[in-house]
UniProtKB/TrEMBL annotation:
Keyword Translocase attributed: no
GO molecular function, one term: DNA-binding transcription factor activity
DNA-binding keyword on record: yes
Organism superkingdom: Bacteria
Record's protein name: HTH gntR-type domain-containing protein
Species whose genome carries this gene: Ferroacidibacillus organovorans
Chain ranges of the HTH gntR-type domain: 67-135
Leader sequence residues: none
InterPro entries associated with the record: Bact_HTH_transcr_reg, Chorismate_lyase_/UTRA_dom_sf, Tscrpt_reg_HTH_GntR, UTRA, WH-like_DNA-bd_sf, WH_DNA-bd_sf
This protein's UniProt keywords: DNA-binding, Transcription, Transcription regulation
Gene Ontology terms describing biological process: negative regulation of DNA-templated transcription
């Protein structure tokens, strides 16, 4: 992992000597290895724009450790992600570069990267490389539609697998909407994507008479905005957030595994008269989404 260590000026001079003839015409990185309590790789960077030299120390995986090399390497890479050294969306070094940098086999590098991809920290993009996974963060105490939350966070949005159909409602959904069981409602399902990757799968139940408008506009617009366009006010909402496993259906929609975790949100939205106008069941990929709430402490007696 990245760490701070002390080394003398001769170490720096040795790194500069390995770089060859010193040049100020382009950026370069030199690499040397030193041993104190642990074995470190020292990276010496030259920035042509600022005309400055910087150093970085990286712990090398050790054969004497009780942990396998790929576990040590994974911990080192994860530390760079969580510390912000590799920010969201940044491409990480190639397999060959990591092999050289950490003095391990390509098999070790591939296993470490595979584990971080499976855990949602990294994402592979065909023909481009491996990148730090972007995680969408939303923070609000106001009532927004699920798509509106992403718009507030300035996230690029696309919609896949959009469906809108009229179905007889189940007893459970009927009780939530306070209508008669088997009464017809409009069922809408869609996958919302950011950066071309599925973020959440949405199933919503709405008044039947919205079918025409939602069939023509529901693939591009917030359902709340479509409700308001029909003169239905959005006044309040009550939601429950739980942790769950994706399961087969949601895994297919979200392009993840059935045993991957999801953040499951159920919400009932009411109009100004307190009548339920929508029930939504939304599943977010846990590796791509985080919801933050700011709390203030109230004085207690």
């Amino acid at each position: 992992m990245s760490t701070k260590i002390c080394f003398d000026v001769f170490t720096l001079q040795r790194g500069l000597a390995q770089q060859g003839p010193f040049t100020r015409k382009q950026n370069w990185t030199s690499q040397i290895t030193i041993q104190q309590k642990n074995v470190y790789t020292i990276l010496i960077h030259y920035n042509v724009t600022t005309n400055s030299i910087g150093c970085e120390a990286i712990t090398m995986p050790s054969m004497r450790s009780v942990h396998p090399l790929y576990v040590q390497l994974k911990a080192s890479l994860l530390e760079r992600i969580e510390s912000g050294e590799w920010p969201s969306g940044q491409m990480i070094p190639t397999e060959q570069e990591l092999t050289t940098l950490h003095n391990v086999s390509r098999t070790t590098v591939r296993q470490a990267i595979r584990d971080l991809v499976d855990a949602g920290y990294l994402i592979r993009q065909q023909g481009r490389g491996t990148f730090v996974q972007r995680k969408v963060h939303t923070q609000s105490t106001h009532l927004y539609g699920f798509m509106e939350e992403l718009e507030q966070a300035n996230q690029p949005i696309s919609i896949r697998e959009f469906q809108a159909t009229v179905i007889p409602v189940s007893e459970r959904i009927a009780s939530l909407l306070r209508i008669t069981p088997r009464q017809n409602v409009l069922f809408v399902s869609r996958v919302i994507c950011t950066d071309g990757e599925p973020l959440f799968y949405d199933e919503s139940y709405l008044p039947e008479d919205l079918l025409a408008r939602i069939r023509t506009q529901g693939a591009t617009r917030s359902l709340y905005k479509l409700l308001e366009a029909e003169g239905i006010s959005i006044a309040s909402g009550e939601q429950t957030v739980t942790a769950a496993l994706a399961g087969p259906l949601r895994a297919t929609r979200l392009a993840c595994r059935a045993d991957d975790p999801v953040l499951h949100v159920e919400r009932i939205t009411e109009d100004g008269a307190g009548r339920p106008v929508e029930y939504s069941s939304v599943s977010y990929r846990a590796d791509r989404y985080a919801f933050a709430v700011k709390l203030t402490r109230q004085e207690t007696i």
